[in-house]
Amino acid sequence: MPLFGLLCRLHAVPRFARAVAIVPAMKQIPLLGQPAAVVRRLHGLTKCRVVLPLPAAAFCLFAVNNLVQDYFGTSKDFFHGSFTTTKDPDDIAEFYQAEDLLKVIAGHPFFFRLFMDKVVVGDTPVEEHQALLSVDESRMTVKNLGMEVAFKITDQDEDFEGKAMRTFTRHERFLDYFPLLSDWGFKVLLWDQTWTYGFRCHEGGVVEVYHHGNDFYGPWPVRLIVQLHQRYVLWACNRLINSEAFGNDEDGFWAEKKQEMLDCMPRVASPFRAKERTYSEGCAMRIVIG
Q1: pLDDT category of residue 278 using cuts at 50, 70 and 90
Q2: Nearest-angstrom CA–CA distance, 263 and 100
Q3: Which entry of 15, 23, 129, 162 is 20 to 30 Å from 152 by CA?
Q4: 261: which residues sit within 8 A by CB, 6+ positions away?
């Protein structure tokens, strides 16, 4: 074999003969030409145990957490969602400035009572540095839960391409402190978020309703939970506003349906809920069996 290799280097052996001689030599190299063996070796690497000193493991965890926090933690303009409707803008404005929006945010009467039973109306700030949003804001404090809420509502007409279009915004800020300690005067901020709920009127009676997350300060797991919850709020508001029950408060049947939707939208929209069928309907009578 050494002589054969020397002849190959001197190009004294035909190419075909050199190739035939190289194949047995390749089979002698471990794992080469054996895909199953390679897969077994790589699979074995996934089961290897790596022992790290505690300081090194803590540093790696700290670095990974900081990396995730940079992308999914504190941020500006971190959420935006919208939908369109042809409902009366007055009804939409009433919904977004009343406690109906808070019922949708709570998601269930239990959570709504949990928060609203502890709400204390705060004082309007006198100076600019005391305000969370502006001196025109309204303040609320949720006792024992460490939450402070400030909101400001604007409803005006803006000029758009030479036409006056109505715009409505509810600018709201939620500050969450460590529970109980904030009531004793020790405020430890956990997270801070600012939202804008509003709508814009367009031509043809179309109204664009939007929810926008302006600012978020806090840990990344809380932000992910907040975004998932606000996705639900946007979906629930869309279902409610575009439903036949919205704006029909004078009709007892639809007023009851609206209240059910405000109490718990997932239960009303559940696919397992029994369908209601209208058997008789007239000007003065409607018989519904559900």
Answers
A1: very low
A2: 9
A3: 162
A4: 236, 239, 240, 243, 245, 268
Q: For residue 257, what is the enclosing H or E element?
A: helix 252-263
Q: Please, what's the b/e burial string for 240-271 (b: 16 or more CB within 10 A of its CB; e: otherwise)?
A: bbebebbbeeeeeebeebbeebbbbbeebeee
For 221-233, the DSSP string reads HHHHHHHHHHHHH
Residue 16, Cβ density class (10 Å: 0-12 exposed, 13-18 middle, ≥19 buried): exposed
- With beta carbons less than 8 A apart as the criterion, state whether 150 and 132 touch: yes
Both structure tokens of 235? 């979906």
- Residue written as token pair 């949003």: 133
Q: Let me know: does 146 contact 186? Beta carbons within 8 Å.
A: no
Q: How many CB atoms lie within 10 A of CB 31?
A: 11
What 95-98 contacts at long range (C-beta under 8 Å, 24+ apart), as own/partner pairs, is: 95/240, 95/241, 95/246, 96/168, 96/170, 96/197, 96/198, 96/199, 97/153, 97/170
Q: Other C-beta atoms within 10 Å of 209: how many?
A: 24
Concatenating the DSSP letter of every residue in 140-201 gives EEETTTTEEEEEEEEEEEEEETTEEEEEEEEEEEEEEE-TTTGGGT---EEEEEEEEEEEEE
pLDDT tens digits, 55-111: 888 999 999 999 999 989 999 999 999 999 999 999 999 999 888 999 999 888 888
- Retrieve residue 242's tokens: 């575009």
Using CA atoms, how far residue 200 sits from 43, 91, 224, 242, in Å, is 57, 13, 28, 16
- For 264-271, the CB contacts below 8 A with 24+ separation are 264/107, 264/108, 264/109, 265/104, 265/107, 265/235, 265/236, 265/239, 265/240, 266/107, 269/239
